[in-house]
Amino acid sequence: MAASYSERVSSFEDVLKGPKIDILELSKMCFNGVPDSAGMRSVCWKILLNYLPKVRSAWQDALAKQRQLYKDFLEEMIIQPGSKEYSTKRTDVTMEDHPLNPKPDSQWSQYFKDNDVLLQIDKDTRRLQPDIGFFQIATDYPCKELVDASTSLETLRKRIEHTMFHSVAVAKSRAGITNMKTSQKPMKMEFGHDTLDDGQEAHWEVLERILFIYAKLNPGQGYVQGMNEIIGPLYYAFAADKDLSLREHAEADTFFCFTNLMSKMRDTFIKTLDDSPSGINAKMDQLMLMVKRCDSKIWLQFEKQELKPQFFAFRWLTLWLTQEFPLPDVTRLWDSLLCDEDKPEFLLCVCCAMILSQRKIILEGDFATNIKMLQHYPAIDMHELLRKAIKVRETCS
């Protein structure tokens, strides 16, 4: 008989309140879903992503240290470079350093490279989860140094506005003089979420800042499109938590959890590793072998129609299915994915189960029908899908 919700909450509390967390026991419990109780998913994910240590008494010091470290990153990479003194130093054009200086160590060269990265991050985070309103609304915990309207800091928002074309109002006076007035309203984009008024900061802007800092700290990898989709569920789990004490530090906690998660899935975001044993192409090949083993008729249909996994599974695997399901379903799915250490990789099992679940459509459909269905996956019960994925693992183990 399945345990009641209150019994499940009590079981999680017993594990989390112990002096030392039993990771194996916690992983088993999380695999079956974390209850939506205040602070529970947030704490569990932080443990599973090695952000919180196993010894509970060490949590307070560990969190204080990491959160202060993030403040230092913020100061060094956004607040200080945006200060008036620093900006004056950069805009001081000299013979040694100027905007057209081709040297890679040029301060101007680095500034323009950072702007290119920032523009891409801005475009992607504005488009994050357009079907829900969460990322568009103001956070209760903005960065105070950056949202103050009177500040002279060049914030990321201002850098974006300075880099892109300003909308201007053009009018002629009676004397025939043309007047051009830059709009003082928050900048409106042709895509995605808009910025809020001065003094406010939308959740997507917080993610923009996290990703920019991550890119600066990881120049070898930098920012890659799709990272915005990966960071979204993490931030949502922390910033929408019912426990306000945890919600307050969602930005710093998300940064470190995202960094740890990317260390596990880094190879799928590095193009030069696509053909390596741990790269995305190897994962797609493994997925099709699983399909062949579980249902040879579906595999033969894919072969006959030349329906390659690159057409649909590339996105599934690199983005951890964040674009295939609603955010609440993704959150439940990630409860299982984050604690998975078994082989074959459970993400592959879920993807295989997604294909097997559409058996009738695939066997009866032509190429156009099947590719459309796989690229726009139909609604499905997540719990049923996960049960099928467990059976796939048993078959392929």
TrEMBL record:
Gene3D superfamilies, sorted: putative rabgap domain of human tbc1 domain family member 14 like domains, Ypt/Rab-GAP domain of gyp1p, domain 1, Ypt/Rab-GAP domain of gyp1p, domain 3
Keyword rRNA processing: no
Signal sequence bounds: none
InterPro entries, per database record: Rab-GAP-TBC_dom, Rab-GAP_TBC_sf
UniProt entry tagged with the keyword Isomerase: no
SMART domains with a match to the protein in the record: TBC
UniProt subcellular location: Cytoplasm; Membrane
Domain Rab-GAP TBC, first and last residues per copy: 35-341
Keywords: Cytoplasm, GTPase activation, Membrane
Protein's job: Acts as a GTPase-activating protein for RAB35. Together with RAB35 may be involved in regulation of insulin-induced glucose transporter SLC2A4/GLUT4 translocation to the plasma membrane in adipocytes.
Protein name, UniProt field: TBC1 domain family member 13
Annotated organism of origin: Strongylocentrotus purpuratus
